[in-house]
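Q: Protein A?
A:
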Amino acid sequence: MDISKECKESIVNGNKSQAEELAKKAVKEGLDVDQIIDAFSEAIREMGDLFEEGEVFLPELMRSAEAMKTAMNILTPLLSEGKANHILGRVVIGTIEGDIHDIGKTLVASILSAEGFEVYDLGADVSVNDFIEKALEVDAHIICISALLTTTMIGQRKLIEELKERNIRDRFKVLLGGAPVTKQWVQDIGADGTAENAVSATKLAKKLLGH
């Protein structure tokens, strides 16, 4: 079987160990890394479309995203210069301080990465200062900040306020995520948007950067 086809199947089936094996095989045998990444990416996009159409459900999409993330961890450092120059944008993402929920955030990070963004995932329980320092360090285009608890949502407001305080609010687009986040909250604190799921979040990120 063609390795590109196998790569797609590993993602569609959410087979993390197979995706990892295929990524390692591609590296070991000196295969075209860009082509292998394209195969993985095509599969995660397909899963995202199926999710939006209600053909697959969140657990399946999450398994696919995890398989994708495992493969990308191996392949991303080997991207060709040409491919690296064609990234859609740099994204710093994490869950705000005091909140340890990271499933949704990890899924968004995986899909963003699959779609061609350079993603810096800071994990969960991330301070406002750490978000900003990382965004400055990598010259990010977007900061994605998740909060699953109403009690930690205030951290999203603090991030916006801190960016304004430092006179760098205009440098970054700020996207909010998490179950309690509403469009009204986005408007109230002056963020740039929110989305219902990882697929929509990726489409919004592209739109904000003019892709």
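Q: Protein B?
A:
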Amino acid sequence: MSEKVSVGGSFFGLAQHPRIVRLNSQPVEIVPEGILFMMSNKDRPGIVGHLGSVLGNHGVNIANMSLGRDREGGEALTALNIDSVPSAECLAELEADPDISNIRIVQF
């Protein structure tokens, strides 16, 4: 069974910088270049700090971040441009959190 995904994009500024501005009906601002880390998560205090700590502990640097949510305390989408692909151990540590799901790595 295939999963359907909807994506909306736009160009910004005189230099026409591309951005993904909607992903599955959620507003975001994602720079479509390099390595993109995406995950679904419960919107709760501390999730951004936890994510940053786990990635940092595994030597993964965050270059850009976009957060979106459907409502306070609801479902959120986190998208990061990162400098390197996270290790399997790093991803397993994040996936162990019950509030994190659907981690995807996209390379442009």
